[in-house]
Every structure is written in structure tokens, then in C-alpha cells.
Amino acid sequence: METLPFEAETAVVVCADRGVFELLVGLLLSLRPLDRRRYRVCLVDVGLTAAQRDHVAPLCDRIAPVRDDLVVWPHPQLVAQLDRQIPFWKAMLCRPFLRDYFPGFQCYLHLDADIWVQNPAALDAAVEGVRSGQAVIVPEADAAYPFLASHTANAHAVAERAKLITRFFGEEVAALAGSLPYYNLGFYGLRHDAPHWDLFRDSLRDATRTTFHFLCEQIVLNIVMFQVRSTLLLPATANWMCSMAVPVRGADGLWRSPVYPHTPIDLLHLTGTDKLERYQPLGLLYDGGRYLEGIAHLAAPHAQVG
What we know:
There is one protein chain. The protein is of the alpha/beta class. It is built from eleven helices and twelve strands. The strands form three sheets. A seven-stranded mixed beta sheet has the order 3-2-1-4-7-6-8, with helices on both faces. It has a three-stranded mixed beta sheet with strand order 5-12-9. InterPro entries: Nucleotide-diphossugar_trans (IPR029044).
């Protein structure tokens, strides 16, 4: 794939639909301090309303609508079921094509729409690794996360991972990878010419021919990274799983790890269900959620996709 000359060094790519609009706005606001000489903020629109898209357009450098030819399509019998149960599935299954949606960049960083950036230093660190040819990602592991302190919780997590890996890759792969923590796809980076892209696409296509799970693309890219073996792992503060350990706020106003030495968190990932109801009362949304009042009318359920 020919991508030179590069438009900028790095595309920060987000995929979002109307269901995550409120959190998407928080993420995009948190990305405003990025040096636009190095970074471009790119959005794959997988179902925003016209009004929502107009609102976020000034916060993005490029917006591309989701394309049927740039999505991994599951078995046709699964598609109708996914449309009902997981309406955002295209946001998951377009990820192997991020460089195709936004060609012309050396490095690609993916961010889930339910993340916001407290400190962009993690993005800079990721770009350094990606530029060298490594995949960059964050394991779901930290001293504050409960499964590391409980044998029962850890055994359950390992068993669930092994079961899902077996479902997509078989028992032999599960025996090798099931005991390792997930690498979370909320934040990861790949160079434009990394071998992972094609392996990710082909393996995800194979994995979803007959079955689907909301973690399928995470499992697939994890296995691809294990295969390629050129991976830079960043610490948990680069993608903090708030449903696993609620951050604490320091006297300086920064959100920090709840355990010593209370390291400031770079990226807060608002994981889990009922995100607004769970995290807004805790003040964990970007800027404490104060921006939500100005966009409440855009989240109306009667709004139509444009």
C-alpha cells in the first residue's frame, strides 16, 4: 500500500454511532490540545444523526461514512440478529480497515468513543512505538484490578477467556493464550504497513463466518499480535478500565490510580454498561460532564440518521 507523502504522521481514529454520541463529544473535546501538525482526528461515522455529525464536524479533521466494502461481514444469518442486539457492530468490524478509511498517514491510533484523554503523553508514547514498527496496546492488568487479588476471580477470568478463544480459534490456541490477560482494543496503534492489518481482516472474517461475540475483534487482534510478536505493551494508566477500578481524584484535580503511588491516568476508559448513569455521578466524564447540557437536545431518541 502506497501512502507517501504522508498528510501527517498520525491519524487518531474513532468509530461511533448515535448511541455513544455524548461520550464521543467528550473524547473529541479532550483531543483538542493535540498538535495538529502531527495528529489528525478522524471519525468513522457508523450511524450518527445529521445533527450530531454537524456538531462534531468542527472537532474532527476528517469524517468518513462507514462503507459496506470496508467492513468485515459476518454470516448473513447473523447480520439481522446483530442489527437487533448489537446495533454498533459495524464500529467493531470496520477496524481492520482504518488505514483504508483514512489513507495517507504513517501511524494509526484507534480510540474507543467511550475513552477520554486526560494526558496525551500516552498517545505520543504509542506513536514512538508504532513508528518503530511495533503494535502498541494496553493489557487489562493492574494491581488495582480485582482479578489479580482473588484466585476465584482470576480463575473465572482465565476460564472465560479460554472458552471464547476456543470458540474462534480452537483448543490449541486457547491453551497457549487463555491464561494471558486481554489486550484491550479501546486504544491501540499500528503502522500503515504493519502485517497486522491483513491478518486482522482475514482472521476476523474467518472467525465470524458462523458465530459472533462482542469481544470477537479484540480476541482476533490479540491472537494476531501473539503471532506477529512485535508488540509494545503500555501500562494500565494508558487505558484505564474504570469498571475494574474506579479512579480517585488528587488534590491537583487529576484522576489517578486508586492504589499507591496513585499514578495519574492518561486515558480514562469508561467501560461497562450504563455508562452515563454509572460515571456521570462520579464526575468521571470529561470535564465532569459539564458539556452534556449543551448537547442534550442532540441525543433525543426521535432524531433520525442523516
